[in-house]
Design brief:
Length: 134
């Protein structure tokens, strides 16, 4: 059975148990994944010597459904049940979006202050000019 958890915005950590019984000596594993926006991904080919791996180069904040099969000299075995996991949200892009919004807001605030100072200065200058003209 395959188990998956998010490891980062672009990676899922996968682990599994060696099937029992096996149909011969296991020569490797194949993990097949799909996601709604991307469809089927190329298979992940894994060494027989491990029972965990990282599925990398994935899309942030995307749900993936995956299954695993064991390979022997006789060929690829049957697929496990599908397991679903979602990669983490990409906080860096969220931070940049918030930062850009703050910079934009600051620029608008700065423009408003300049406008208010000009308005106040013109009003004060006009008031003094009127007093001196009388």
């Amino acid at each position: 059975m395959l188990s998956m958890v998010a490891g980062s915005p672009t990676m899922l950590s996968a682990s599994w148990m060696v099937p029992d019984p096996t149909n011969g000596v296991i020569t490797g594993y194949t993990i097949r994944c799909s996601s709604t926006p991307l469809g089927m991904l190329p298979p992940f080919i894994i060494s027989a010597s491990v029972t965990e791996t990282n599925l990398e180069n994935l899309t942030p904040f995307t749900s993936y459904s995956c299954s695993i099969s064991a390979n022997t000299s006789a060929g690829e075995g049957g697929n496990s049940n599908m397991e679903t996991a979602t990669t983490d949200e990409d906080c860096k892009s969220q931070y940049l979006n918030i930062r850009n919004a703050c910079v934009t807001l600051f620029c608008h605030f700065q423009q408003l202050l300049v406008w208010l100072v000009k308005l106040l200065f013109q009003s004060t200058w006009s008031h003094h000019s009127t007093e001196h003209a009388q």
